Amino acid sequence: MTAIATRTLKPIEVLLVDDHAIVRSGLRMLIESRSGLKIVGEAGNRAEALAVAAREQPDIILLDLDPQYTTPRRITALCCSAQWDWYLRRRLRKSS
User: Fold this and answer.
1) Lowest-confidence region among 38-42, 49-53, 68-72, 90-94
2) The pTM of the whole model exceeds 0.85
3) Which of 40, 70, 89, 90 is the most buried (most CB within 10 A)?
4) pLDDT tens digits for 12-67?
5) Class of 10-95 per CATH?
6) In what side-by-side order are the strands of the sheet with 12-17?
7) C-alpha triplet 88, 93, 94: angle, nearest 5°
8) Are the beta carbons of 43 and 52 closer than 8 angstroms?
9) In 3-state terms, what secondary structure has residue 69?
10) Phi, psi angles (nearest 5°) of residue 28
11) Largest CA distance in the chain
């Protein structure tokens, strides 16, 4: 056996963000059917998403992109883990 085969890997933690509960439910079913993935939270809006992300610190945030409110800069900030803490603190300050 290889070292990889004997090692238990931590599942990838996922946060689902979509304003439609039926979409979140379908995505949850799909993701939970795959090994190595774990849903750590769901959110229906931005405020909930920021709160759950701050609490759970997911590896991946799967979010519904609304072109009216989402800019490439925001997407880049979310996708670059090195910038995630900065982005989250900035958004939390603005929502206070």
Assistant:
1) 68-72
2) no
3) 40
4) 899 998 888 999 999 999 999 988 899 999 998 888 888 898 899 998 888 876 64
5) alpha beta
6) 37-43, 12-17, 60-63
7) 100
8) yes
9) coil
10) -60, -50
11) 53
Query: Which uninterrupted H or E stretch holds 90?
Result: helix 81-95
Burial (0-12, 13-18, 19+ Cβ within 10 Å), 35:
exposed
Q: Look-up: residue for tokens 């409110």?
A: 69
Nearest to 12 by CA among 37, 34, 31: 37
Nearest to 59 by CA among 8, 3, 10, 13: 13
- CA atoms of 89 and 77, how far apart (whole Å): 12
**Residue 80 CB neighbours (<10 A):** 11
| Single-letter amino acid code for the residue at 65 | L
- The structure tokens listed for 30 are 């799909």
Query: Locate tokens 């979010």: which residue?
Result: 63
